[in-house]
Queue: 2 jobs
Job 1
Amino acid sequence: MNKSHHLLMDDLVTRLRRGQLSRREFLARSSALLAAGAMSGLPGAVLAQEAAPKAGGFMRLGLHNASQNDNLDPGSWSTSWTGASFNGGVYNNLVEILPDGSVAGDLAESWEAEPGAKVWRFKLRPGVTFHNGKSLEVEDVRQSLEHHMKPDSTSGARAIVEQIETIDIEGSDTVRITLSEGNADLPYLLSDYHLSIYPALEGGGIDMESANGTGAFLLESFEPGIATRLKRNPNYHKNNKPYLDEVEFINITDATARLNALLTGEVDFIQDLDIRNVSMVERSGDFEVQRVPSLRHFTFDMDTRVAPFDNPDVRLALKHALDRDDVIEKVFLGEATKGNDNPVASIQKFHHDMPAREYSIAKAREHLAKAGLDQVNVDLSVAENAFAGAIEAATLYQRHAAEAGININIVQEAADGYWENVWRKKPFCAVDYFGRATVDWLFSTSYVTGAPWNSGWSNARFDELHQTARAETDEAKRAACYAEMQEILRDDGNVITVAFVSWRNAVSKRIGFGEVGGLMPLDNMRMCERWWIKD
Amino acid sequence: MNRTSHPILSMVASRVGLGLLSLLIVSLVIFFSVSLLPGSYASAILGQNATPEAVAALETRLGLDQPAIWRYLSWLAAAATGDLGQSFAGRPVMAVLGPRLLNTITLASITAVIAVPLAITLGVICARFRGRFIDRFLSTSTLASISLPEFFVAYLMMMIFAVKLQWFPSMAGIRNSMDLGEQLYRMVLPILTLLLVILAHMIRNTRAAILSVMSSPYVEMARLKGESEGRVVTRQALPNAIGPIASVVALNLAYLISGVVVIEVVFVYPGVGQAMIDAVRNRDVPVIQACALIFATAYIGFNLLADIVSIVSNPRLLHPR
């Protein structure tokens, strides 16, 4: 049997255990699988999604986070709705992230960095036009980036553009970006969905009124908080793309209403399928569950300025005292992968593969003893929206840890305002992290000393490696730095990672797509130009 | 006496004055209870991009660093001139709420036009045939539908008519681009759900109001005069039961404007209730204020109307001793 058959077999076994399959069904299906494996052995045999894309058609998407405040100011965007419809539909960035996680040119044809990664030159792709026919010029790029750099900027990309010192124009097709310090990841950062390229206005600024982008689709209609409809751009700069004639994004807040809309054929795709509805979608013949491994992870964060979390041995004891397998089976119903006290996802470049953290009462006791304690009391703050299943996970953790002499008192906080009043304010709390496209970006937001989301953790060696790796352009040396940093985080860090989850969507079988990217939701926000309709 | 020469006018004037006072109090309560909510617009809207600098910059731009009382007074001054201000995202509040309000009013009016006459007729029938099969059937079924939560009725409708029979779409997400026919077709399920919810209440109250009048001596007198039972109910009892019926109708109409949030969410109907939820989630105070004002106006307005109707229908109330 090849790898995909193994996965299918594992899946059958899990479903049998959960009671979703009768023993008779299990035998029938598993023997069919074995027979198929013996006959074909072809690696792609179970992947139906390999047909060539087809042109034409209308795709309707049921997403859930549109707001009546949505608008065309790219700095104000904060949802996958605005990311996928505006950034991924109407506009482009200088670069895009391919499904495999590598970065490729989009409006920029090529780029190069001077040694030290402080000065970068991006050469624009020739012949790109905006929807109104105006051709793309270097000034458009400069104004679009500077839009986020104003001193009173409230842009979501502020943390990225703060590293930029100047943007200069060299000739008619090259933009030179000078950073305040070297950063080898700049191309990745420029793929951020806020950094869409808009047409510049005379006298500075960008045109945020007319929805005039370079993207694969024209904005046909936009009703904030309700729906957005896009129409194919016949002059798009990518061969054959987009495949679809029209796309409609429909806002459906309620998870049950979303599922109903899919099942009754009102939409072809729904975002964030509820775990409890997975089997319902799988049972129907017309739809499938799409699981895209992502950077998103659920954690219990410790404030290392507060006792007992200031003691690295107590932190290790807490890390050993959680039975992640149990939580994944009972709370996430198998729909998650095990965390390893490392916030870097396995799909991420520079992920360092370390032996899994196993549940061990003996080790937890050993570390407590090293800290000079035979038991410890901690308050763990959770709320239902800290992450899906946070309260249940904490309840299991309480039981797992009790045996090691760790007494966890679960504090149920109000869901409303959790992120303002509990996260980074209470010393031990559950957190839902969406991750960041690069390791450097992740570390600079949450783990280096003084990072905006750091809750007190500081490690001199970690900071030093972070500085070295950032300006290093030799991939092997960078990888070595990042590996050591991930080990430091696992053994000394302030975060207990419970699990990594996938973007879990449900999609009609009439929709075609290739490999789906997971660094950002919705195929790295590019679903409307990458997907097609099969019939 | 001048007061008695236009009793209805002076009564209406004083009621309207009281209504305005209630609106003022409502706006005060809403404004300050929103500021009691944890979290702020800036951190809600910036989400995982909320660095402390970005939050501070946004709060300054929106004037959230000003004292709350000052913000309230300037909002009130503008609202008094009909200007509901700008939402925090920079669009005028009326531009945000206008289309939503129109959708809500459309849904409410269609439902009301069907529900009110139907409920009163059925109520009268129940009272006329008290204790017979039709009365027992309607009393039991209305009791059952009152007892079910509205979202359950909604899901039930959806399961039967959208999933199983596939007669109607499960989503009532109407849009400007659709023609009237399609909009109406998409509104069938929410209307049906709302009918089930409000009919029950109105039928039961109409029946009760008529029956309480039916025990009065003058009804006995009418019967002794030999009038038919149907005529007694419609000509003698009903006119004197208008007061209580008008109040229950008013209550249900106000509910149709302000209380259908759950149904809007379930059927993805873009009404004003969804807009308010969205605004509360984002702490978009100007929009929340405007929604509260609209809802309060609906309640106060309909109740005022009911009062006027019942007073006009019963002259004794015009001249209280």
Job 2
Amino acid sequence: MFKVEDIRKDFPILSRKVNDKPLVYFDNAATSQTPKQVIDTIVDYYSNYNANIHRGVHTLSQEATDLYEQARHKIQAHFNAKFSHEIIFTSGTTHSINLVANGFSSILKKEDEIIVSALEHHSNIVPWQMLCERTGATLKVIPMNQEGELVISEFDKILSEKTKLVFVNHVSNALGTINPIEYLIEKTHQFGAAILIDGAQSCPHIKPDLQALNVDFYVTSAHKICGPTGVGMLYGKEEWLKKLPPYQGGGEMIAEVTFEKTTYADLPHKFEAGTPNICGGIAFGAAIDYMNAIGFNTIASYENDLLEYATNELLKIDGLKIYGTSKHKTAVISFNLENIHPYDVGSILDKLGIAVRTGHHCAQPIMDYYKIPGTVRASFSFYNTKAEIDTLVNGVKKAKMMLS
Amino acid sequence: MTIENIQNEIIDEFSMFEDWEERYQYMIDLGKDLPLIDTQYKTDSNIIKGCQSKVWVHAEMTDGKLAFTADSDAIITKGIIAILIRVFSNQNPKDIIEANTDFIDKIGLKEHLSPTRANGLVSMIKQLKMYAVAYQTQLN
């Protein structure tokens, strides 16, 4: 049985105060909080296992290597990848995306096209722009509509034989819209192109089956899913990962080195140059265990309940407008008060101990579409409560009163 | 009045507020009352781009004293601008260059100067001082 009061006990940070008020943490889309099970894993690693991996013959190194590779298997199982070597540890989503973009720079030709969506985070736009500058390829954009959804009929029009790569987030970080990735994947494959899905915003809410989705690449960060910062993953189908050249040179990614020629190591090590974030990888595995012990169906249904409650309560405030009104959303509410700057609202909420995100959420094209400087974004997690939402609603009312 | 005198006066005023709400309400009211910048100066070249709120600044020199006008799209930012203008306007460039801004900490608004707020205020203070440096160079 899911009891939020018990869940909250797992998260030490939730009992702290901010500006003398109990912390209400609604910035989960930026980073999730860390349960003590994951914190304990980190402490345990540095207390008992810390060693460099994959090369030492000594016991400590072997134990650390085993823990790290076990984590890779946990991640493989969770996302249902076919092989564990299809899971590449990276420093996070941005690193993963850059790794793929860099790989495609040796594949793309001048006449080729890449498609991205209008709902992307800057980290999902800039690497592709840089790739197009390097290769001369063209960047095409799937437009969005007033509800904050992708206009799929437009995607159908811009997709062609020239398309080599499609890049879409599963869930928009600024609005919470869940994109129809099943359709996008199938359609992309009809034209022989590859598709990369960014799962950074969806993975805390939706457990994807990568083989069933038949996606070519999938990326995410551990810190979105109750793990530590500075570690993430790239999933790539074996055939694609074999095709892409290595991203960085260094130790661990080589088979043999002479000054005449170096041969690269097999997957996954080909893409894991240097000493990785060993503890981070192991803690990523622990975070996946933690989430699965609660269960993703349980998490999704509880969070949907929070989303519905918060949407209804916030909309009772006069002059409050929600951006991103798709029926298919994760627990994210982006909103503004009429004639009030989101920065001002965020400043007042902070004084009340409520952590929200304000600004353009690194998704300026979306803000330009709505012609607004930014929004206030409240994003909920399974450890949040309706009582906290009441605190937010009262805080927004207070901000409105003070700022009008 | 010297810059330091004005800063002390502001610290005194703020010491009368009992909690953050009174402080913020005062700032918001200052923001609302901030004289409008002449629209001809509210141009892209006068904009200081912060991540979240925009700040425009214009400077003019009369009889060896610098006067500033400014604006922002966020009201709390405008309130802080009003305070900065009160401190730095109608002063000679040399004093502006040498002035410190520790008083912001003393009136409990330190968080607005944190780079994570990215509200353009740190850049604004820099910009005020840059104007002062530019005009000081002219005087020399």
